[in-house]
Design goal:
three-stranded antiparallel β-sheet; 825 residues; alpha/beta
Length: 825
């Protein structure tokens, strides 16, 4: 135990003042948020005092949500999501955020939160329930006045975690952190001691008050605590003055209780900290919350670690508080479930029975050694570490501890009343997800595979998921499948999605609710906003950008916008003078044409637009003679890309048969050579051979000429770049071209060779292993060296199965070492 020390005078005075306030029918229950022990003691206090009013530290604006919070249909964990906004000082009309300073925060409740117990038990006893903290807008205004940042939560207990007193106490008690000190001193007080609530809360008050003494008023003013305490003080004081006969229980975070007692007892005069909330607007909604968001190990500053464990701890207090033997049995049952889960995950190096027997015995022994009436969280963790981990804690045990913390943290998701006040967007989206049979009862990520071509219902689900992703709800992420906007995976028949309904999804939908009551409405407005942004940026006349918007509208099923966008696009295709924009538009239109069945578009959809885009691209081909280096580099993929579009169109549309002739009429190889655009000439020569416009011998002559004696290295490399970008196999299959390049390189001195070596490496890196082998063999023959080692290209079924087994084994080893997430497995 720590050495005794004199009680600070301020704490002594506050304890005496607390007694005087009790005589005036004002009781304080200083709490740690989400503490089962505080909740159990609070139940006893409410039963003893029988208050007429229960006042709870939470923003006063939440009082409108009391009917929802007290509804029988509301099942924790839930949270109030609060949002306040004002216009940023000095913001102009061009501010991309609209000039708004938006601040959001959560106020969570779980079944063992003292605030939840105060709500439910107080209401059941007939007490009037009120929230008394400063409004969220007032808290934001106060922080803004003093340069504070927006909080993520309304229950922050960072003061306790960083208190010098508590750190020293942890050191003397040989505890690892403030959470272990708290559990040792408070959570593991016996049920008998918890039934003496005033003594228990006196201990909590002393703990929190000593932490409070570490902080100066200037710090507390800057981050808003003094404003909040003044608001709570005024509410308690006004109620007591209006109704002196009322019996008041104030449930407040222990850190603030010292100041409130001092103000109410008259020992200090509270400064009138009133924030200027003019220009601020706020709103709040009740949403479902989850254990993984409540877990302190996940970064929640006010949480207890391992909320699922403490939920079980709370239930044990209810069902077995009068029987010490039953409480120990409950610990054994919990540990048994945990061990079985570890065994099911393949993380035990022994049998489940052996592991359970060893861990249970050690946990009970540690609890006895530490003076605990039952094994606590840290007793269990230490027992598991000693019995299940062999060797170093870092030696392959990461996966085990991840599983332990996942089990003890939990993923339970609460429920809110169906008829509660919430934006239509949230209700509509949730109902849609339910109707499409998504599992929404927990926050674990799940996958769903959609047969989008053969099943109409799956196409509707796909459209819904694309809408949720487009608006940024965070609900779903596409893992694979055809992408008719970006043009990838067009040959795939199935879509695979990963999804999870989490509190963050609900919060995001609440944020979006002001933009519309449906995903379709918000998505449509987003598309219009993108178009307006293009106009502001001077890109409204870009056919490529407009084609992208059209593709997005098709993917999202925004039929009402398709005709307008396609009409606009056809106009731009005739007026856009940029070759890259026209080719981009043609490419995107082809993506849509390929997906017309899936996207439920007419069979002839976009045919005329595709032909128009290609025709005008050919007309603008004179832009390839631009000699500016950056533009000439960009023109190479444009030239090859346009050729590919022409080939696709010729296969599908009779009206495109003459496009190839027009394409080659627009290209003058001599002019390209004269302008030193040899990379484009190399591409053009290769394309002509592929289209049988020149024969094998002519191509060999052109390749030899490109690498003839005396050709500057840069010119030869640029020609080679064009060939490789178009069809590298042409060069690989030409021994004459390889010999010509070899002779040319032999003429270069070391300095000239090293100057172009990086470009050569980049060019040859595009070859596949078999092609690299062929080039290596040819080079070896020309230089008299031994042939390069063989590259095996014929891989049989047995080889593939062996490789798959090795891959599976490697993945398991990496997962056991905790490296799966790092490698993206």
């Amino acid at each position: 135990m720590p050495e005794s020390a004199p009680t600070p005078p301020r704490l002594t005075a506050a304890l005496a003042a607390q007694g005087r306030l009790n005589a005036q029918n004002i009781w304080f229950a200083p709490i740690r948020h989400h503490s089962p022990a505080c909740s159990f003691a609070l139940r006893q206090l409410l039963a003893e005092v029988r208050p007429s009013h229960v006042l709870i530290e939470a923003p006063q604006g939440f009082n409108a949500l009391l009917p929802d919070l007290l509804s029988d249909d509301t099942v924790p964990p839930v949270a109030v999501f609060a949002q306040a906004q004002t216009r940023k000082k000095g913001a102009d009309a061009d501010d991309e955020t609209g000039g708004a300073d938006i601040r959001s925060a959560y106020f969570p409740f779980c079944g063992y939160s003292p605030e939840w117990v105060a709500l439910r038990e107080g209401a059941a006893a007939g007490a009037e329930i009120r929230f008394i903290d400063a409004d969220w807008a007032a808290q934001c205004a106060a922080e803004a006045e003093h340069g504070g940042a927006a909080q993520g939560g309304l229950m922050s207990e960072r003061y306790l975690a960083h208190s010098r007193y508590i750190r020293e106490l942890a050191r003397r008690l040989h505890c690892r952190d403030h959470d272990e000190v708290w559990e040792h001193l408070f959570e593991l007080q016996s049920p008998e001691r918890l039934r003496a609530p005033q003594r228990f809360f006196a201990d909590v008050f002393a703990w929190c008050a000593l932490a409070r003494l570490d902080y100066e008023d200037e710090v507390l003013l800057r981050e808003g605590s003094l404003h909040r305490e003044y608001a709570m003080y005024r509410h308690i004081c006004d109620l007591h003055q209006r109704q002196p006969e009322s019996r008041i229980v104030a449930v407040t975070g222990g850190f603030h209780t010292l100041a409130l007692i001092e103000h109410l007892s008259g020992d200090t005069a509270p400064p009138p900290h009133i924030a200027d909330t003019r220009g601020w607007q706020e709103d709040a909604w009740l949403i479902r919350y989850s254990f993984d968001r409540l877990d302190a190990l996940s970064g929640y500053a006010s949480g207890m670690p391992s909320p699922a464990y403490y939920q079980q701890f709370w239930q044990d207090l209810h069902t077995a508080a009068d029987d010490e033997g039953s409480l120990k049995t409950a610990v054994y049952d919990y540990l048994s479930r945990l061990i079985r889960q570890l065994g099911a995950d393949g993380l035990l190096q022994t049998t489940a029975y052996t592991a359970l027997a060893a861990a249970a015995a050690l946990a009970e022994g540690l609890a006895a050694l530490r003076g605990h009436y039952r094994a606590g969280r840290y007793d269990l963790l230490d027992a598991l570490h000693s019995t299940l981990v062999k060797g170093s804690a870092d030696d392959g045990a990461a996966a085990l501890w991840q599983a332990v913390h996942r089990f003890m943290g939990g993923s339970e998701l609460g429920q809110t009343a169906a008829g509660q006040r919430s934006p239509a967007l949230l209700q509509n989206t949730y109902r849609q997800a339910q109707g499409y049979r998504f599992r929404l009862d927990d926050t674990l990520a799940k996958t769903r595979k959609l047969d989008v071509y053969r099943k109409p219902q799956h196409r509707l689900i796909s459209r819904f998921l694309h809408l949720t992703a487009f608006v940024g709800s965070g609900f779903a992420e596409r893992l694979s499948g055809p992408d008719f906007v970006g043009g990838s995976g067009l040959d795939l028949l199935f879509e695979e999605w990963r999804y999870a309904w989490t509190p963050a999804v609900e919060a995001r939908l609440l944020e979006l609710a002001e933009q519309g009551d449906s995903l379709r409405a918000i998505a449509a407005e987003r598309l219009l906003a993108e178009q307006r942004q293009l106009e502001d940026e001077g890109q409204a006349a870009s056919a490529g950008h407009t084609a992208r918007l059209l593709a997005q509208a098709c993917r999202l099923g925004l039929e009402n916008h398709l005709a307008r966008l396609q009409k606009l696009l056809d106009t731009l295709l005739q007026n856009d003078s940029r070759l890259d924009s026209l080719i981009d538009a043609a490419r995107r239109l082809f993506y849509l044409w390929h997906g017309r069945k899936l996207l439920q578009l007419p069979e002839e959809a976009f045919e005329n637009s595709i032909l128009l885009a290609i025709r005008h691209s050919i007309y603008r081909l004179n832009q390839i003679y631009d000699t500016r280096q950056e533009q000439s580099e960009a023109n190479l993929p444009l030239l090859v890309g346009l050729h590919g579009l022409i080939a696709q169109a010729a296969e599908r549309f009779p009206a495109a048969q003459d496009f190839a002739d027009a394409f080659y009429r627009a290209i003058d190889p001599r002019r390209l050579a004269a302008l030193h655009l040899t990379h484009l000439k190399g591409a053009a020569d290769t394309l002509m051979f592929l289209d049988k416009r020149i024969g094998q011998s002519e191509l060999q002559n052109r390749l030899a000429a490109a690498f003839t004696t005396g050709t500057p290295p840069e010119t030869a490399v640029r020609y080679l770049q064009g060939v490789f970008h178009t069809a590298p196999e042409i060069f690989v299959q030409s021994a004459a071209a390889t010999a010509a390049l070899h002779r040319l390189i032999a003429e270069w001195d070391a300095e000239r060779f090293l100057a172009v070596l990086p470009d050569l490496r980049q060019i040859f890196s595009s070859l596949n292993p078999k092609q690299s082998q062929q080039i290596a063999d040819q080079a070896a023959a020309l230089t008299g060296l031994a042939p390069a080692p063989a590259v095996f290209t014929d891989i049989g079924e047995a080889d593939m199965l062996a490789a798959a087994a090795l891959d599976t084994r490697l993945r398991r080893l990496l997962a056991a070492d905790g490296m799966a997430g790092w490698l993206g497995l």
